[in-house]
Amino acid sequence: MASSRGLSLKQANAFLDFVNASPTPFHAVKSSRELLEASGFKEIKERDSWSSIVKPNGKYFLTRNASTIVAFAVGGQWRPGNPIGMVGAHTDSPCFRIKPVSKKTADGFLQVGVETYGGGLWHTWFDRDLSIAGRVMARGKDGVVKMKLVKIDKPILRIPTLAIHLDRQEKFEFNKETQLYPITGLVAAELNRQGKDGKSEEAKDEAEESSSYEPLAAATARHHPYIVDIIAENAGCTPDEIVDFEMLLYDTHKSCIGGLNDELIFSARLDNLDMSFCAVEGLTASLKSDSLSADPTIRLIALFDHEEIGSRTAQGADSNMLPAVLRRLSVVPEASESKNGSWEHVGAPDAYEQTLSRSFLVSADMAHSVHPNYPAKYEASHRPEMNKGTVIKVNANARYATNSPGIVLLQEAAKRAKPAASYACKAEKNGGVPLQLFVVRNDSSCGSTIGPMLSAALGARTIDVGNPQLSMHSCRETGGAYDIEHAVNLFESFFVHFGELETKILVD
What we know:
By secondary structure, the chain is an alpha/beta fold. 28% of the residues lie in helices and 23% in strands.
């Protein structure tokens, strides 16, 4: 590959904007819906009837729990029972979450109780400039409780390491319950602030005693009051209006382009906001031409929460969300079946089963790049490299859902993709984007994705792919700057050409 200096970083920089605005799954969904709305997608609700809303040539999205989002565009030649081309990813990443009762003090320090979420490399979170983001449930003057998103840009937390002089351990080991509490200030400074504000703990206690009964202690009693104040200010409400919140810790150091030739991305949450962004961009890019009007399929993306903890939640991939959406879409009527502007969901009783048997899911979750300091950890013939294209992940024990029909279909989509402007190689001359293959060593453990659980639940053909990265599950990860464009172009081609390819690659 030619030197990357001077080549286009448009998609990589767009991703940086996306990931920097998305420190939590709630923010990732907000960022995704903004991109979708800019491309003409309209919001619909699960609780509403879709029979008079969803139509051929329409573009729609829906959310669940504000942390999972599904978006789809209905082809102009759609028929009930036709196939649906899908790309699935996830919005969550390993992190720390503030405990329901987080107020702690020790040896003159203010501390915050946190809980680990997912399988993070927790030692990478030490000595970072941390802050908090998430959602607040606030009760307004009218008594209605509404959700508000919060992102505190100022570093207010830090997990300090112990000086080497006090513990010369060869391995950096720590207790996750007792030695991972972030500090957020000094007790003396907080008491001084309260004094300057004219507040006193005695007055607060009297106010709480005279207030109406609440089943749980107020947020200001369960958390440090100043943290609640900062959250309330960012949410545009008062501290006493906060009923509860879900706050995640994140590194305030922004994601950026790195490397001698601007060929790398240094970022938090590459796993899996990298693939979430590429899914959204691939879908919207596929709609910039008039290909949708002649498409007999539905183009769909699903970005799920809670993959890092097994997906078995109402908003996870192992829920009813995608099956329920597909069932409703399988009977969307074709354009000629609308009469006097009235649309009814019609079709054969087995239209849902027909749709599933013909559909295809690309499960998109980040892959492992070969690590130059640990080459022995990789199988000799399967060593993905950054900026060499999206990786197809294969596992004989079905930790990934990939099989040969899926590989054939994705290869055909890759051949038809427009070449990345940043990739100077044979693929650029002949068209298309490159792909790579990955198999884990027999003596190593293997992660998994949403692919196997969705393929089992749906019976739809599935393949597992992802862009290569280093330091997966670290507070800061590393990926290839040009693999963003590779994946976007791959997904765009998949959506545009799936209707044609689905009829040419037959197994049953």
